[in-house]
Amino acid sequence: MKSGQSRNASNEEEVSDSDEYHEEEREVEEKRARISRLVLDVLKPRQITVIQLGEGLTKVDGVSKVSIASREVDSETETLRISLDGTEIDYEQVVYQIDNFGATVRSVDEVILER
Predict the structure, then answer these.
(1) In the chain, what is the straight-line distance between the N-terminal and C-terminal CA atoms, in Å?
(2) Rounded to 5, what percent of the chain is helix, strand, coil?
(3) In terms of domains, do 48 and 26 share one?
(4) 51, 58, 98, 104: most buried, per Cβ within 10 A?
(5) Total tally of structural domains belonging to the chain
(6) Rounded to whole angstroms, how far apart are CA atoms 97 and 111?
(7) Which stretch of DSSP H or E encloses residue 82?
């Protein structure tokens, strides 16, 4: 029976260690910086309007304000400077939404992170 008791004690230690690890992971997650401003250089097809793209970006979690300025236009594409403001902006969702419109993020020109 002692070996069974020893195994139970060992399992309890593993569970305890696992619980401690997950608690530390949650604390790190809570302390993680959040994106409050994001400025992107984006290339989009001319068929999509900046209003359509802007409306799509307002649906992203954490985005409260979208500002789009056209920088360069040619016959097929338009280069945009897109500024997003909010709290806890989800960068992956932003890129996903931009991709859904057939546009491409060329660079992140500015980011403000807060804790």
Answers:
(1) 52
(2) 40, 40, 20
(3) no
(4) 98
(5) 2
(6) 18
(7) strand 77-86
